[in-house]
Amino acid sequence: MKKKPRELVPAAKPPPSSLAPIQPAVSAKNSLLSKNTIRGYVRDWKDFFQVESIEAITVPMCLQVAPEQVASFRDRLIEQGLGPGTIARKLTALRTLFDYLVQRGMMVLNPAHPKLVRGPKRGTVKKMERLSLEEARRFLGAIDRTTPRGRRDYALIMTDLHMGLRRSEALGIRSDQFKVDGDRAYLIFRSKGEKERMVTVNQDLAAALAAYAPDRGNTPGWLFPGRDPRKPLSGDQFWRIVQGYLEAAGISKKVGTHGLRATFITHNIELGTPLSEVQKTVGHSRPETTLGYARDLEMIKSRAPKAMEGMSAPEKEQLAEELYGRGSMRRTPVGPGTRWGRLVVVKALLKNDASHVRWACVCDCGRKVEVLGYNLAKKCGNTRSCGLGECLRLVKEQKKAAALKTEP
Predict the structure, then answer these.
(1) Are 135 and 181 in contact (CB under 8 A)?
(2) Residue ranges of the alpha helices (H) in 232-346?
(3) Which pLDDT does position 146 carry in this prediction?
(4) 3-state secondary structure of 234
(5) Over the chain, what is the mean pLDDT?
(6) What is the pLDDT of residue 366?
(7) Region 37-56: what's the mean pLDDT?
(8) Could you tell me the CA-to-CA distances from 225 to 151, 222, 229 in Å, in that order?
(9) Residue extent(s) of CATH 1.10.443.10 domains in the chain
(10) Which residues contact 15 (CB under 8 A, 6 or more apart)?
């Protein structure tokens, strides 16, 4: 059966019976789940349509968008010096909006479809600043844990660092998220895409949280509340906390709060934790996303090429010794006095028509023979005796004895 050719872009779906949205951006926003995704997409939509609020984005404005306008928006972002990842996210925001209108039957074609507007190519190595083990110890050691604020900061940073959490996940932890199973404690997270995952609390983190617990108290709510107990610490406050302790530790890297998550991922990969376990712990949908944090670790310390060492052809000397015994590999050129097997070279004779030198040799049995230099000079030549039956028998016995010596 002949395979049906793939279309350039997906065919438009038939329009449903529901009414078209009057404010498409507002309706598309309400269909999203993650607060961080909503905040980023709304900002990108306003940037593309050049409006102050998404309520100003109307259906006619969306219908007038062509792929060329989306491509111009992409090129403008490149000229502004934005990274490939940021530009790809903004294009994804536009595709999400137009996909929503296509599904509602208001548009036939998505003008931001990747087949029509390609995003900038990302580099094969993703640079992500993170802390080494020595830097992490200096960073944590700069926190004064004799004060309530220091114990809170230490518990917050340890939670983010030892669990590989996103900033919003670390700040959004509530006291009722902690669960206990025997002597093991863990947290339940519902993160991007409404994925639920369980992350274990290790001993170091448990000690940090235990030291912070008396200062926080037993009131339910946010684990790390802000000035207003009804709200958690903000992302900007967390960033300033991290930067302050980095400066106190004398670390000039631009790590930020996300650098703690990158430190967790790269440290685990370096220690040999399976990639699937790291991916599951940090809540990535694809292993490629997890691996992106560690691509600049000399390509995972170049373990794959190093693992292939030894898978090569044996050295010629090794091959000759395996075939004929130790010391059989010729290290000197053919000349008078050279021995090859049971033959000893006496002198060179005239060249034949093929310009090969013939050598006069004497076998150990006393018989004189002439041998082509090709058979003597060849690293694994086949002329090793005068050719008489007794000499051939002795040569075979020598090869057999050499083979037995090499066997384990």
Answers:
(1) no
(2) 235-248, 258-270, 275-282, 287-292, 298-301, 303-307, 316-324
(3) 93
(4) coil
(5) 78
(6) 82
(7) 88
(8) 14, 5, 5
(9) 133-302
(10) 104, 105, 106
Which residues partner with 347 through β-bridges?
A: 360
Q: Which position has the token pair 């992350």?
A: 199
Give the closest residue to 382 by CA, choosing from 365, 403, 406, 399.
399
Angstrom CA distances, 198 to 75, 91, 156, 369, stand at 41, 32, 18, 83
Which of helix, strand or coil describes residue 251?
Answer: coil
Query: What are the residues facing 180 on neighbouring strands?
Result: 185
State the Cα–Cα distance between residues 83 and 12, nearest whole angstrom.
Answer: 32
Neighbouring C-beta atoms of residue 185, cutoff 10 Å:
15
- N residues, the chain: 408
The span from the CA of 91 to the CA of 85, in Å, is: 10
- Work out the number of other CB atoms within 10 angstroms of the CB of residue 344: 14
User: Global pTM?
Assistant: 0.57
The tokens 């902690």 sit on which residue? 178
Q: How far apart are the first and last CA of the chain?
A: 57
Q: Average the pLDDT over 88-114 and give the result.
A: 89
**Within a 10 A sphere around the Cβ of 5, how many other Cβ atoms?**
6
Lowest mean pLDDT among 20-34, 58-72, 104-118, 268-282: 20-34
Chain centroid to Cα 375, Å, comes to 53
What residues have CB less than 8 Å from 364, skipping those under 6 apart? 342, 344, 385, 391
> Rounded distance, CA 230 to CA 171, Å?
13
- The share of the chain scoring above pLDDT 70, in percent, equals 75
Give the DSSP H/E element, type plus range, for residue 344: strand 343-351
- Count Cβ neighbours within 10 Å for each residue of 281-297 and write b for 16 or more, e otherwise: bbbbeeeeebbbbbbbe
Could you tell me the CATH superfamily of domain 133-302? Intergrase catalytic core (1.10.443.10)
